[in-house]
Specification:
The protein is built from 7 helices and 9 strands; from the N terminus they run βββαββαβαααβαβαβ. By secondary structure, it is of the alpha/beta class. It has a 5-stranded parallel sheet, with helices on both faces. The protein has a 4-stranded antiparallel sheet with strand order 2-1-4-5, covered by helices on one side.
């Protein structure tokens, strides 16, 4: 069973088609780069895969479960806006722990949060409120939240946009430690493309 499967997946906004009849199968552990110009539908596709946006037609499954279902969400880590979506008044640690508590057994939360903070270099500012973190720090926190519950599928949208070279290296080292992790990443960064074995290029409608 593929980790991710699309069958004639289509998304429209009104009469405007974003992508049409898209077929894709991604095995466990594969990395797929979503390429294409701005406006070609990369973020829209990731939103459909995460379940935050529904397909207009076709089917999409994660580990055999319909995208957006509780079972699919449980195994999907999502980071679609690395610098946004954090709870501003909570610390970096509290932001990560919030997600961990929703997805992990209580006894596993502390070790999971501490582990991902160390891997991504967050421990040194874990007590800082998110509102006081730089864009790069916020990106690391958002990535940590997407990984803390050990997902089977990771969806990333321009993860390195606000990361410096060290931050991008830390991100991919963290992913490399999880060879079973399936990763779909939308990015214009050459290094991200080089890290992926497969490429799916989307073309802007019209």
């Amino acid at each position: 069973m593929p980790m991710l499967r699309l069958v004639r997946a289509t998304r429209r906004f009104g009469r405007r088609g974003v992508f049409t009849d898209l077929d894709l199968e991604v095995a466990a552990g594969e990395r797929v780069l979503l390429a294409g110009a701005n406006g070609s539908g990369k973020t829209t596709l990731l939103r459909c895969l995460s379940g935050t946006l529904t397909l207009s037609a076709g089917q999409a499954t994660v580990a055999g479960h319909p995208v957006g279902s509780p079972a699919a969400r449980q195994v999907t880590g999502v980071c679609l806006a690395p610098e946004q979506g954090l709870y501003e008044q909570l610390t970096a640690h509290q932001n990560i722990a919030f997600v961990a508590r929703l997805r992990l057994p209580r006894r596993a939360v502390s070790a999971a949060v501490s582990g991902i903070e160390e891997e991504l270099g967050i421990a040194r500012y874990a007590s800082l409120p998110a509102a006081r973190c730089s864009a790069g720090m916020r990106a690391r926190i958002s990535i940590a939240r997407s990984l803390v519950a050990a997902p089977a599928l990771l969806l990333l949208d321009e993860p390195g946009r606000s990361l410096d070279e060290e931050g991008r290296r830390s991100l991919w080292q963290t992913i490399d430690r999880r060879p079973e992790l399936t990763c779909v990443v939308a990015s214009h960064h050459a290094d991200d493309g080089n890290r992926c074995r497969r490429r799916l290029t989307l073309t802007a409608a019209g």
